[in-house]
Amino acid sequence: MSVTLAGQLVVAISSRALFDFEEENKLFESGDDRDYMRLQLQRVDAPAQPGVAFSLVQKLLAFNRGDAPRVEVVILSRNDPVSGMRVFRSAQHYGLPIQRGVFTRGASPWRYLKPLHAHLFLSANAEDVRSALGAGVPAARVLPHSVRASEAHPNEVRIAFDGDAVLFSDEAEQVYQSGGLDAFQAHEREHAASPLPAGPFKPLLHALQALQEAGTEHMHIRTALVTARSAPAHERAIRTLMDWHIEVDEAMFLGGLAKGEFLREFEPDFFFDDQTGHVDGAASHVPAGHVSCGVTNA
């Protein structure tokens, strides 16, 4: 009987998103991969420090207690196979049950997302993220300098999403960019009863809800919609989620207020947004990633 990941939430993640390899990466980006490999081999027994997405991965893997596996995390990395040894040893050091990995020695690894049927791809490489989004896989470029996640909620996976161009399509954002705030508000008021088309991260939110509904006593998922929308444009966002039969636990309609301090209070393990300004602002408070999708990233 062949092995399958069917029925599991599959997260593909680069080594730099999971662990802090920023010092080593400077050598990698210099183009001298032999020196990089040599350095990683020298440090193979030295566990790397946790990276931006470490908390998210650690908590998701905690859903696997019991007989039925529910979450699969796969390393998908431009690292070479030799350096991959340190990645796996670091995972083992922290008790992360990660057993699968693809290491491509500088080549883009995004094509392997398709056979993995990945629900999420996290990488520090902008090109790989754009390719993944183009292939229909929810993906974000992590900011390695982001603040690490709070340890205040050990039994909750907390994830925050922007709305337009992330959970929803950028249809409304296009109206805003071309006509301004008044045109946007009028458009959303007129179409309040019409669900927005899906954005790139709808499949992930759906998979997270399925994971939550599967039930476990020791781990839970808490989600938040954090958007620049305000009344009356809030209604279309809420009705869209209702139409999808997807629930979020919190919704923040901030009307253009900076998101960072609100996210600091929510304390997510990760935040996804399509606008670099919002991501940069959030990164000083929480782990954050840029979703290079929609008209603002054209």
Offer a few descriptive terms.
298 residues, Rossmann fold, 10-stranded mixed beta sheet, two-stranded antiparallel ribbon, 12 helices, 12 strands, globular
Structure description:
With 298 residues, the protein is α/β, with parallel strands linked by helices. The protein folds into 2 domains: 9-142, Rossmann fold (3-Layer(aba) Sandwich), CATH 3.40.50; 156-297, Rossmann fold, CATH 3.40.50.1000. It is built from 12 helices and 12 strands. A 10-stranded mixed β-sheet has the order 5-4-1-6-7-12-11-8-9-10, sandwiched between helices. It has a two-stranded antiparallel ribbon with strand order 2-3. α10 links the parallel β9 (220-227) and β10 (250-253). The radius of gyration is 19 Å and the shape is globular.
Can you describe this structure in just a few lines?
It contains twelve helices and twelve strands.
Query: What would you call the structural class?
Result: alpha/beta
Tell me the fraction of residues in β-strands, as a range: 15-25%
What is the second-level CATH architecture of the largest domain?
A: 3-Layer(aba) Sandwich
Main CATH class of the largest domain: Alpha Beta
Determine the number of helices (DSSP H or I, runs of at least 4 residues).
Answer: 12
CATH fold annotation of the largest domain: Rossmann fold
Q: Report, as a whole number of angstroms, the end-to-end distance.
A: 45 Å
* Integer-rounded radius of gyration: 19 Å
How does the SSE layout of this entry go?
Layout: E1 9-13, H1 15-18, E2 19-20, H2 22-29, H3 33-42, E3 49-50, H4 54-61, E4 71-77, H5 81-93, E5 100-103, H6 113-116, E6 120-123, H7 126-134, E7 139-142, E8 156-161, H8 171-190, H9 202-214, E9 220-227, H10 234-244, E10 250-253, H11 260-266, E11 270-273, H12 276-283, E12 288-290
